[in-house]
Amino acid sequence: MRIIDKTPFLDEKGQLSFMGQIQGRLQFGLNWPAELEAQQNVVSQLNKVLDKGYVLIRNFTLPGSEIVIPLLLLGPNGVTVICVTVVKGFFEAKGDQWNTVNNGVSQPASINYLNRAALLAKAVQKFMERYRIELASPVEPVLIAVNPGAHIDSMRPVARVIQSDAIKQFATSILQARPVWRLEYAYQLSDEILDPTPPEERKPVAPPKPDPSPASRAQAIFNASNEGGDLNDLGFSFEEEVGGFENSSDEAPAVASAGSYRPQQEARPAQKKRSRGLTTQQMVLIGVMLLFEVCILVGFGAYFYFTS
């Protein structure tokens, strides 16, 4: 499998430095490094099963927007958006609802990871349409919970839900799925996604199908996500004209990975005051980290002073 990593703040060796961690936490949330590690876990397991004909693009920002797609898998079976979460506990995935379950009582979770996966798949679908990139089947949303402590009861969810002990089986099911285009088309498609031709210069070209197939489960899932979600929940609206995406808020949403994106609530709270482009929470975090570094430097200084 070809892996294309677009994760921000990585160094030349593909590692997340200390400063990269600070920048990532400020932009995407405190759990960002843990979420990247969870993504890598999923990528490693998929890579053991999927080989030639598959391309995985990691943490890719859709051109013309600030929407970051955690894992975008391209293969003979089509296009799949994979969100990864590190949550643990008991959950219920029902339609577009993502509920926590405590003592047999379910209630909406603070973050709807299920609907987020469906909305990100819809964003990719809209991106393809705007750039006149034709697909043989709709983009399928998948939510993977990597923590073994996550127990999920699924009832016709809008996104396919995979638990930690079923990741390899999920990869095998992809490998065995009926192809919708030729094996090598994923490589061409990845180039078109990463560096799309302007819509006005592109002529729609249908992907090379091996043979026609009936509507897949992905079609039903995508239709359900159209009915149950709104792309405005991602913080963006799609312009009617070909061209892409329009930011509908002054503050860019954090959408680096499944666990870092914070969806808008029905009653959106007032934006936090900013100083030099940073929120109060971000400035406090920077202050704490700087204080931590100063303490380390003072400790080393004291050690060398009293031991010399």
Folded structure, characterized:
The chain is α/β, with parallel strands linked by helices. The chain folds into two domains: 2-271, no CATH class; 275-308. 35% of the residues lie in helices and 22% in strands. It contains seven helices and 14 strands. It has helices at 18-28, 32-49, 113-130, 167-176, 185-194, 217-228, 280-307; strands at 2-5, 55-61, 68-75, 78-85, 89-94, 97-102, 105-108, 140-145, 150-155, 160-163, 236-238, 245-247, 274-275, 278-279. The strands form four sheets. It has a six-stranded mixed beta sheet with strand order 1-2-3-4-8-10, with helices on both faces. Strands 7-6-5-9 form a four-stranded mixed beta sheet. It has a two-stranded antiparallel ribbon with strand order 11-12. A hairpin with a 6-residue loop joins β2 and β3 (68-75). α2 packs across α4 and α3 (113-130) crosses α6 (217-228). The longest helix is centred in the C-terminal third of the chain and has 28 residues, at 280-307. Residues 212-218 and 235-277 have low confidence and may be disordered.
Keywords, please?
7 helices
Number of domains: 2
- Extract low-pLDDT stretches: 212-218, 235-277
The rough form would be described as globular
Distance between the termini: 55 Å
Structural class: alpha/beta
Largest sheet: 6 strands, mixed
Report strand order across the widest sheet: 1-2-3-4-8-10
Strand content: 15-25%
Number of helices: 7
Helix percent reads: 25-40%
Mean pLDDT: 78
Secondary-structure element order, N to C: EHHEEEEEEHEEEHHHEEEEH
The number of distinct β-strands equals 14
The value of Rg in angstroms is 21 Å
